[in-house]
Amino acid sequence: MGHCLDTSSLHGAEVGRQKLTNSLRSGFLGSKPTKSRAFLRISPVKHPGRQQSCNFRCSVIQKSQVQAPDSVTITADNKRVECYGVFCVMYDLNQEEQPKTWKKLLRIAVSGAAGTISNHLLFKIASGEVFGPDQPVALNLLGSERSRNALEGVAMELEDSLYPLLREVNLGIDSYDVFRDAEWALLIGAKPRGPGMERADLLDINGKIFAEQGKALNAVANQNVKVIVVGNPCNTNALICMKNAPRIPKKNFHALTRLDENRAKCQLALKAGVFYDNVSNVTIWGNHSTTQVPDFVNAKINGKPVTDIIKDKKWLEEEFTQTVQKRGGVLIKKWGRSSAASTAVSIADAMKSLVTPTKEGDWFSTAVYTAGNPYGIDNDLVFSMPCRSKGDGDYEVVPDLQINDWLAERIKKSEDELLAERRCVAHLIGEANGYCDLPEDTMLPGEQ
Ligand code: LMR
């Protein structure tokens, strides 16, 4: 990484320390711990097509005796991503617990970072819960013009939490800056459907956001970035994002259906009178919408088919299925807003599932690109299916699940819904002849 630093105003000792900082930065948390205190952290800004500049604000570099950094804020005239407050400081690595055992810094970009879901999620990631106690993390937080203050509020709370693994927090309102070098991109920010808004309008408004973010990821993110789309309608938003990021493997794009899987497990556990960790092999098929199919046919409780434990077929086919499909809406009625904490938990679960080997015989649900899928789903959708991972960030779709007529009919309905959504956003995925003929009952889980 290059640096933009004017050392002319620094005293000799400061320059020495600056050099030290620069060398540390290039091997940050690598194999060269030092006894000297390194104190300065800056976030270099590079932008395709923009001249690299050295004038962004990180006031610590102007002080001869640095005790504590000033907070660095994003300002109206400077929209670039910048380090925040204490995260502009580098720490004495020898003071850290076994720094040599730490892995290389992992950069995670989050959109909608000032929102309620992020407010739960960021603290889980920073604590080490997701990537483990030996994985230092950098958080690049994307907000909007409107959420500037809230974004800084989030950064302040992260500062005050003193997480040892959290090495950088960078704030920005331009996805081209915030997504730079990201190895994970958690795309949470999206517009909710407003009163009287047609679903086609929602698809168009949010689709444009995800097309733009796809382009930004394509331009500046790590080539193997893993992308999890949460903003609704998340399957089609993920498809749009993917189509606008041809440099990134299509396999790397996910839409979040783990929340639905968690909801399904909870309902099955309740009915069977067991704790939910006894429920496994639950698949959500299809769209994160009311056409999603929570699969009780292949699910297990204590290693036995759910249908051996819960004999009430009518409950499984009707009440269970609809409860999971519409859980988001019921929650909105209770809370007055969409689920946030449980969504954050499920995003963390989704990431953990990709960086932890899947338990033998089990699988998890995530909506992924369908090319070459073993279930005969149209090859150009983002569709929730059963997957397993070796823990390397990659996954494979689990083949050979039993698809009985009941499942097949419902999976088809969800596929049809996604095909209709795809036609609606043809203009955003580089296809001609789009038209919007959404089925009337096409709804997000939160819409009833
Ligand atoms: C959820 O499933 O809780 C959300 O996707 C609901 C919504 O429509 O925002």
UniProtKB/TrEMBL annotation:
Catalytic activity: (S)-malate + NADP(+) = oxaloacetate + NADPH + H(+)
EC number of the protein: 1.1.1.82
InterPro entries: Lactate/malate_DH_C, Lactate/malate_DH_N, Lactate_DH/Glyco_Ohase_4_C, Malate_DH_AS, Malate_DH_NADP-dep_pln, Malate_DH_type2, NAD(P)-bd_dom_sf
Keywords: Chloroplast, Disulfide bond, NADP, Oxidoreductase, Plastid, Transit peptide
Keyword field contains RNA-binding: no
Location within or outside the cell: Plastid, Chloroplast
Residue ranges the record marks as coiled coil: none
Molecular-function annotations in GO: L-malate dehydrogenase (NADP+) activity
Residues in Lactate/malate dehydrogenase C-terminal domain copies: 257-427
GO terms under cellular component: chloroplast
A Pfam family hit: Ldh_1_N
Enzyme class, first EC level, given as a word: oxidoreductase
UniProt superkingdom: Eukaryota
Segments forming domain Lactate/malate dehydrogenase N-terminal: 107-254
Entry annotated with the keyword Membrane: no
GO biological process, any: malate metabolic process
Family: Belongs to the LDH/MDH superfamily. MDH type 2 family.
NCBIfam families registered for this protein in UniProt: Malate-DH_plant (TIGR01757), MalateDH-SF1 (TIGR01759), PRK05442.1 (NF003916)
PANTHER family in the cross-refs: MALATE DEHYDROGENASE
Protein name, as recorded: malate dehydrogenase (NADP(+))
